[in-house]
């Protein structure tokens, strides 16, 4: 994935409505009208979000007889996840240090309690 | 993590310079001047990017005697990764189907070759 695609993917994900649309499409394809329902948004407003998702390659729309259902395309999500994965070591180290610190605190508390009793 | 924080994290990641800054900080803390060097950018331009990263909670800046080094804060990256993780099943299924299709194609090709020989 080019860095430009990663820009578009992250920008597309930076909006709660667009993330909710992807969440809905993860359950199966849906029409624009179906996607608009839970958001109390106008169809043009939803269409705007769909265009951002489409340009980022996160959804596709196929033409079928009477409707054009939207489908989720998960490949860019994998690329974004792969990018983040490089940082896993860092957040795990941070959590380990926090764990260690909490255990130290607990140890001190128990020592204090024993002294007091 | 609130949805607002996730908005800020993804928006902050939607820029190649900001992702490169995080990449540099993953190796250790750095000053603004050190961060600016590889980008041929003015210090104010880099500072602007740092502010976006700081507001997203992705970096912190501590004051020390003569300088204010920037540190990476990996927690929001973990949250973004956790959000994406929900979609892993979808991209793995897609890759499995692609695999299956390629194996089918190969099977057909081999059958064709055997018929021709």
Short synopsis of the structure:
Two copies of one chain form a homodimer. The first copy, chain A, is mainly alpha-helical and 117 residues long.
Radius of gyration of chain A: 23 Å
Multimerization status: homodimer
Give the CA-CA distance, first to last residue of chain A. 63 Å
| Major beta sheet, strand line-up of chain A | 1-2
Average pLDDT, all residues of chain A: 91
Number of helices, where a helix is a run of at least 4 consecutive DSSP H or I residues of chain A: 6
Task: Give the secondary structure arrangement, pairings included.
The structure is a homodimer of 117-residue chains.
Chain A lengths: L2 H11 L2 H10 L6 H5 L6 H13 L3 E3 L8 E3 L2 H11 L2 H29 L1
Antiparallel strand pairs in A: 1-2
Helix pairs in contact in A: 1-4, 1-5
């Amino acid at each position: 994935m080019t860095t430009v695609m990663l820009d578009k993917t992250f920008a597309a994900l930076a909006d709660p409505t667009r993330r909710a649309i992807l969440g809905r499409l993860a359950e199966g394809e849906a029409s624009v009208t179906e996607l608009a329902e839970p958001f109390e948004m106008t169809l043009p407003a939803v269409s705007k979000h769909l265009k951002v998702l489409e340009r980022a390659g996160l959804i596709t729309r196929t033409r079928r007889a009477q409707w054009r259902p939207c489908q989720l395309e998960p490949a860019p999500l994998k690329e974004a996840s792969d990018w983040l994965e490089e940082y896993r070591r860092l957040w795990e180290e941070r959590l380990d240090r926090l764990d260690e610190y909490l255990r130290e605190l607990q140890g001190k508390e128990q020592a204090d309690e024993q002294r007091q009793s």
